[in-house]
Amino acid sequence: MFRNRNKGRGNGERPGPAANDANSDAGTTKEKKPFAQRKPANTAFRQQRLKAWQPILTPKTVLPTFFLVGLIFAPIGAVLYYYANKVSEFTIDYTNCQNAGADWVEIPTDKYDYQLAGKNSSNWSNPQWRFAPAPTAPNGSHCEIQFSVPEDLQPSVFLYYKLTNYYQNHRRYVKSIDTEQLLGDVRSPSDLSSGNCKPLGAEGGQGIYPCGLIANSVFNDTFSQPQLLNPGGTDSNSTYAMTDRGIVWPGEKNKYKRTKNDPSTLLPPPFWRGTFNNSQGLAYNYPNGYTAENLFDPSEDEHFMVWMRTAGLPTFRKLYYRNDNDVMLSGRYLITVNDNYPVAMFHGTKSIVFSTVTWVGGRNLFLGAAYIAVAALCVLLGLIFTARHLIRPRKLGDLSLLSWNDN
Fold it and tell me: Name one Pfam family in it (predicted).
């Protein structure tokens, strides 16, 4: 029945399967593996037989939940709101101080806001300002502000500067920074010009230090220490000493080191190249460029660190001074501002803010109000649903309400 395909091998015919089997004795015969089962293991987890609990929402379970949430949230919100309201805070907008003139005039009422519990007509008077001549000031004059503190402010007392309509959260602005340069690493002009700092990375074959949009636009208004005028009826003023140390978050200083670049290879940012030579009057001012003795060191400037941590909203405040030990006594105070930072170009404003804190933080009434609002809403919904259930109760599992029973 079968033809012997080995026949005629001498005539050049191809060997058949038998010959191939004979020649494969030297090799290793491969055994077929049994068919692999792909069915998941027979376990509760793999076969989805784990125990589960599915709540059945009934009036007896839902209605008490509304009232329970209301009872929990209401006291939490009341406590948060009470202690946030205990924070003393006042804000003075000095944007238009340059238009005040050389004589003392009252600040318009829409330019300041006091949130102090002890404020009354006997211990408080309207704040005043003037743009007084000052030979050491960059513009030849500086802004002087007199303000009242109607009650003793317990430490800690903080001084912030506040900006409005300033979008530090713009994507290109946030990315315009070179972290390696701020850590002190050597960065060539080509590294900076092709990196995130572009177009403020390099200029004329020299690297800009510190590079980028954030550093170039650093806030450079300066504030004097608050002076208590005529304390106790005396003729001399008393300084309420505040410090600019400890105004950054813990660990923030680890991001900044003195650069290892040769100062002759570096240029200050464009907005730092002023013409005013008194470094006490204008912060971040390098009219003659950098030298070995006059080189910016970010690791020693906490105001710079505070600015470099960008804000998420267009209205923000940043810490400038603090005092954690001394009471700020009630009375009339004087503070001097070197008004250098322009805000008219972006239609913004700038203000000084004095504030205390409590264990819940600063003056933020929203969180407490939100808790109270949620509690009130839950109680209101609980009452409405309870009344609806008592007036027109619905039988649980009533088949007459199914769609096919409409007819």
Answer: CDC50
